[in-house]
Design a protein that fits this description.
2 copies of one chain form a homodimer.
Chain A lengths: L1 H4 L3 H11 L8 E3 L6 E3 L5 E10 L11 H17 L4 E11 L5 H18 L2 E9 L4 E10 L14 E5 L4 H9 L7 H12 L5 H7 L7 E5 L3 H12 L2 E5 L7 H7 L4 H5 L5 E6 L5 H8 L3 E8 L3 E6 L2 E2 L4 H7 L1
Parallel strand pairs in A: 4-5, 9-12
Antiparallel strand pairs in A: 1-2, 3-6, 4-6, 7-10, 7-11, 8-10, 9-11, 12-13
């Protein structure tokens, strides 16, 4: 343990690499290099979230480029800010490094992280590097919400349920990489790209937060069914979902046909699920939010979600779905 | 990888345990349970820091109680806020868990974390749980600074250098646990306690930030010599340190005699190192800051630190010290 407790020069170099790439937004008074970063107070309410990606659990290095990994580490956090309708502002990064990764790898990882941060208007204001057995990237992200804040708890019976984008692509993507799913050509490339390079719906979340009454929302990180379950639980309501309305990409259909299992339970979509008091057409919402939007069902009194399959209530509730996975 | 991507029920239980223990301070609008926590904006300037403790790198489970580990995970972050003169306010916790640890272990870990947070006035506003090969606890901590902010870069030639507490105790403590250092009785217990249960100098830091001109400061986490080096580098100055003035505890002397190696380079002290423009007596500062304070030298023009040993300049500069370890 002795050699671990004091930081080696190599680790200091990594910290310097990580933190030298600050893009200074107006809110950052002091970036990396001191004991803390100094920021101006949030305008409106402040949001904070933390998420972590661990090698062998959330990613494999042989599956994608280091740049994608860097970007995705931030995207999973951006998605949480998006789900509250906030504007992301600044983050701190904890990097756990393991032997066998060289400076070139970290340069590429940081390049991806920096690009994602720049695109989202986020300053990387601080970092910490530690050694570990496996590579992991943990990011705490701050944001601010000036108007409405989208909460899981705001769904009410009668609300109309929508999702952005298409579901299940990322889950199929990593299964394609893992050899569990056979799919070729453009469909394979699309699905893998959806897994490696997800987009957080930040702009859509901010636009959603302007609707009144303020919608309920959550991001779909663990799969539609599970995350819908969180919203229902927090709101004390139930839901009926129309199986035929679940948005599937052509690539999903090419790989999985009409099997909804991964669209409902696959995870890593980073799309938004939201509930509106007043019904709006998909076309209207797609234009308003700047992303494709699909209406998939209604909030009802009661508990849990039911999947309606061609009019007849299906049995695929929360527990049933869990067992199928 | 399949079974890792979706969270198991066990993980949800852990998240619930972790986040149910929120102590709500006035600044927390929404605690755990949504995509983000919602906070009121910081009063004054906002501080943020992130730090991580990894099993086998920063701690061993057989060396101390889970409660100590939980508290210490926060203390290392509190120390960063203390070093800026800030008031800690809220934190988010990322817990990477491994097989072989039971609910009782996590209950005790959280109890320690919660106690430390409560004592420091910090709300645990959010958490994330992931699986990993080794246990690790990563905390991002927010704080606010209403008056002066202590920075590493503020040291000027002629400044008087001080430290709080005694140095090297924690480094001796873990070496005693590891069998590298032989020490018995009360001295052994004291040194091990200093390693397992360090205190962050938060109140002292806040009081220090009221002094004008605002002092330079850094917390001693990597060892006096290394952290002094950071302050000197950021300030563009040098320092002369009086070896005889380095504060050593009776337990340190019992275990290491007059050997300053671990007091200078051992790390994990979490004491404050600071530089004042106007000299003050140790007694005055001890009373003013509420912790023992020792004057250990002066800031000088130039680069790097020199250790003056009994009047004659010693050779134990930065590089020499590194080689000795």
């Amino acid at each position: 343990m002795a050699e671990f407790v004091s930081k080696s020069l190599g680790e200091f170099e990594l910290i310097a690499r990580l933190t030298a790439r600050l893009r200074r937004r107006t809110g950052t008074i002091l970036g990396p290099g001191d004991d803390c970063a100094i920021l101006r107070p949030a305008r409106g309410r402040e949001l904070i979230t933390i998420d972590s990606m661990v090698e062998g659990v959330h990613f494999r290095l042989d599956w994608g480029a280091p740049e994608s990994l860097g970007a995705r580490s931030l995207t999973v956090n951006l998605s949480d800010i998006a789900a509250m309708g906030g504007r992301p502002t600044a983050c701190v990064v904890n990097l756990a490094i393991r032997p066998g990764l060289d400076a070139r790898f970290f340069d590429r990882l940081y390049a991806g992280l920096e690009r994602a941060a720049g695109a989202a208007g986020v300053d990387i204001v601080g970092g910490n590097v530690t050694r570990a057995e496996a590579l992991s990237i943990t990011i705490a992200l701050l944001g601010e919400a000036r108007g409405g804040v989208l909460m899981r708890s705001a769904a009410r019976p009668g609300d109309h349920i929508y999702v952005t984008g298409t579901l299940g692509d990322a889950a199929l993507g990593w299964r394609a990489l893992d050899g569990q799913v056979k799919v070729r050509g453009a469909a394979r490339r699309f699905l893998i790209d959806r897994y490696l390079n997800p987009a957080a719906r930040v702009a859509a979340g901010m636009r959603l937060a302007r609707i009144r009454p303020v919608p309920a929302a959550i991001d779909i990180s663990d799969g539609l069914w599970q995350d819908l379950g969180h919203m229902l639980e927090r709101s004390g309501v139930g839901a009926e979902i129309d199986a035929a309305a679940i948005p599937l990409s052509p690539a999903y259909r090419a790989a999985a046909g009409g099997d909804l299992k991964l669209a409902l339970g696959g995870g890593e979509d980073y799309e938004l699920l939201f509930a509106l008091r007043h019904e709006k057409s998909e076309a209207h919402l797609t234009k308003q939010l700047g992303v494709p939007v699909s209406g998939i069902g209604r909030i009802v009194r009661g508990r849990g979600a039911r999947l309606r399959d061609g009019g007849a209530p299906a049995l695929a509730g929360w527990d049933q779905l869990k067992e199928r996975r």
